[in-house]
Design a protein that fits this description.
single chain; 157 residues; alpha/beta; 5 strands; globular
Length: 157
Amino acid sequence: MRTAILPGTYDPITCGHTSLAVRAAALFGRAVVVVMNNTEKRTLFSFDQRLELARAAFPDRTDIEVVGCEGLLADFAASCGDAVLVKGVRDARDFAYEANLAEINRRLGGVETLLLPADPAVGFISSTFVRELIKYQKPLAGYVPDGVIKRIGELQR
C-alpha cells in the first residue's frame, strides 16, 4: 500500500487541511500528516503545539497519522518507502508554487507529488486567515476542527 504524505507548517491545521488528509487517506489507504519545522518561518504556535493541534484534528482516524519532521521533506519521504507527496492547491498561484516544489522533491528524493484541487467548501481557508481570527478573538467554528478549537483555547489560557 502506498502512503500519502501531506507536509505542511500547519500553523494551525485547518478544515481545508483535514479535508485534504481525509481525501488522501481514501485514495491511498493511509495518510501521514507531516508537521514541518521550518526554522525560517515565524509561527504563532511552537513546533510541539502544532503537532498537538494536528493530532487533535484526527482523534478517531486510524488511517491518518500525524508526525513531525525537522529535516528535509525529501529525506523524510524517502525514508517512508513507497510514498507520494499530496499537496492541495486552491488556485493557479498555488499550483505554480507547488509544481516547483514537486520538481525539487522529485530530484532530491525521487518522490512524486500529487496536486489535488482544494474542496471549494473549505478551499478559501488558510492558516493565515485562521491566525487573524485568533488574533482578534473571533469564532473558529467551521475553519478549524472542533478538537483543534478546544486545544487552541487551552493553549491560550
